[in-house]
């Protein structure tokens, strides 16, 4: 068989949402990256193969303004513009396109990592088998990031890791079991149904389970009536090995899925409600919740989350409840237990950098559900929005380690630089403000109306009752005056993308689920330069669909002015929030 070898600054294993964002962040910040992924499409549980919506700190918009920004926001907004029909295949394509667009990023799809070489607690290389080309791909790199979910590099390198539930005593976790065990949360197979407009029959496969009564199913009669997108509680695996038993569990999950559809169509008291509906898609790759977790410099635990995670080295954040699924999954109803318990958690809470690199392997990062957490904490951090926050942090950290020639642990000495880089790329870090340049801080700031000062206060979203923004309508302007010509590298804008709205990619038909760009997002605006006392026409941005905008200037100017021309919503009474208007100078 062929063997192909390549060199990189960072090798990322796993192209789910955490791994994709790690790879994009590192590549955009100058690192040479190889992303090895064992599936044909990117996105992991969020891809067309699994179709799970990306949950996060905003909890499906029940906690306003806590949505993850940065690269995830970029992807979601582009998806609203390009994919109003909410096709998961179009979403796959968008993720693939974003990876292809980065010259520093090389994709290895359909490539499963199966070996690693290690010396002196440093990974030297990883090797993957690419099924489609029957080729071994060896990647030699200075740094590695395991975002595979199942933490494949742990058994291959000897990296410290855990699997199962800690005892209540070990970390003082009230929601942990009295005695630790090897049980985990399970995995789910979903389905999608469509209304065909006329009665549709259904004959189940002979191997499907039979559920005669609604009481045979979790949550009884009311729990299975939202049938368009299947049910998260079709879950198994927590009482088995959630890696080695996956194929057996998948078979059993499919028997349940087809049995549930048979129940809905042929046995349920409410079967008339689905008379015109037919199965359109069934998930054959289970969406997994939990398996191995790495041990980092810090193991995030229940107490950290409940105390809001005020770490000095915050680089990511979460906010999902501690959503601890019963190990019995679908069978929990038979033992009289709820399928899950939503333990309270604040939103946001901070996640420290020390939970994203290995305690004993010197050049290994990780992000996503295999990050360094207890089972209890991981029941919150495992959701993909939080994984994206961690992924962008890991990729950005890897790029800084590359440029400085240091190992992950040594970057703790430069944690402020990492935090500012993340904030500058529109990641959100609770309680840490962005530091604007001296030119932005010291220039005279004026506006056509209102108070312009919040655009340079370093907080780029609404927090509580404070919008941290200048409120404007089309025709309004805001401007810096420097007093003398200054060399301007670029203009940094953070626009209003409706963080109080629901924009996740999902098949669910919620009334508040957006399928178009938020009305408050600026679609057209100008950036003008003050030169010799006159405002020149500058640069006009049209058909904008992003929240973070960085416009290269590369000229001297006496001032910079932002002029809002149009919003995506055409109602003239609409307002928008400008969260940041900053000037970056040449170093």
Describe the structure.
This protein has 587 residues and is α+β, with helices and mostly antiparallel strands. The chain folds into 3 domains: 298 residues, FAD/NAD(P)-binding domain; 102 residues, no CATH class; 148 residues, Sandwich (Jelly Rolls). Helix 2 crosses helix 3.
Produce a short descriptive summary:
With 587 residues, the protein is of the alpha+beta class. It is built from eleven helices and 27 strands.
Question: What would the keywords be for this entry?
Answer:
Jelly Rolls, globular, seven-stranded mixed beta sheet, 27% strand, alpha+beta, FAD/NAD(P)-binding domain, 20% helix, single chain, 3 domains, seven-stranded antiparallel beta sheet, 587 residues
Shape: globular
Could you name the CATH topology of the largest domain?
FAD/NAD(P)-binding domain
Oligomer: single chain
What is the count of DSSP helices, taking H or I runs of 4+ residues? 11
CATH architecture of the largest domain: 3-Layer(bba) Sandwich
Report the helical percentage: 10-25%
Largest sheet: 7 strands, mixed
How many domains would you count in the coordinates? 3
Q: In CATH's first tier, which class of the largest domain applies?
A: Alpha Beta
Strand percentage lies at 25-35%
Provide mean pLDDT, rounded. Answer: 96
The low-confidence parts are none
